[in-house]
Design brief:
Strand order of the largest sheet: 1-2
Largest sheet: 2 strands, antiparallel
Number of helices: 10
Shape: elongated
Length: about 180
């Protein structure tokens, strides 16, 4: 446990405990090792008394982090950050609403709104046809990236062909799917 010395944090935590008591969450606080008489006394304190209690050195009020769930939270945060980065990247580099729906479950109208918010216009129909030799290179690299998930696969493909929009790359890699 990491002891908290900041009076504002201590006050916040003590008022949080009182709030939980008032919501009837006494059992969880008892399980944490706080005696019933202490909980009753805490609940009976006025706000000014809670403020004074928070300013005292005792009781020791601390912070405990559960290691495994903290690690999971950090992993989830990294995933969300990466997802947001890729969403923004795909919007900025011309991904079609259909591709955004397929990769991010982003509704059509949301894609258009995000494009407008980024100062990008609405795409005009199908992208221009890419020369056959470039399409062959795109297909070859697409197959080489098969070990990646679809978001990463499109991202890496666009990194290889940065002058071609994601919409156009999507058309190339799915051109044989339509037949």
């Amino acid at each position: 446990m990491l002891p908290l010395h900041d009076g504002h944090l201590r006050l916040l935590l003590l008022t949080h405990l009182v709030t939980r008591l008032e919501r009837g969450e006494k059992a969880e606080l008892l399980d944490a090792g706080i005696e019933p008489e202490q909980l009753d006394r805490l609940r009976a304190l006025s706000l000014s008394e809670i403020h004074c209690l928070a300013a005292l050195r005792e009781p020791i009020i601390g912070l405990a982090l559960d290691g495994p769930t903290f690690k999971a939270g950090l992993r989830n945060l990294a995933f969300l950050t990466q997802t947001q980065f890729l969403e923004d990247y795909f919007i900025r580099h011309g991904a079609s609403p259909a591709l955004m729906t397929a990769l991010f479950k982003m509704p059509y109208k949301t894609t258009l709104a995000r494009r407008r918010a980024a100062g990008l216009g609405r795409g005009r129909g199908r992208p221009a046809l890419i020369p056959i030799d470039a399409r062959d290179r795109i297909q070859r690299i697409w197959m080489d990236l098969a070990h990646l998930n679809m978001r990463q696969r499109y991202y890496r493909l666009h990194q290889t062909f940065p002058l071609i929009s994601l919409h156009a790359l999507h058309r190339v890699v799915t051109e044989f799917d339509e037949e």
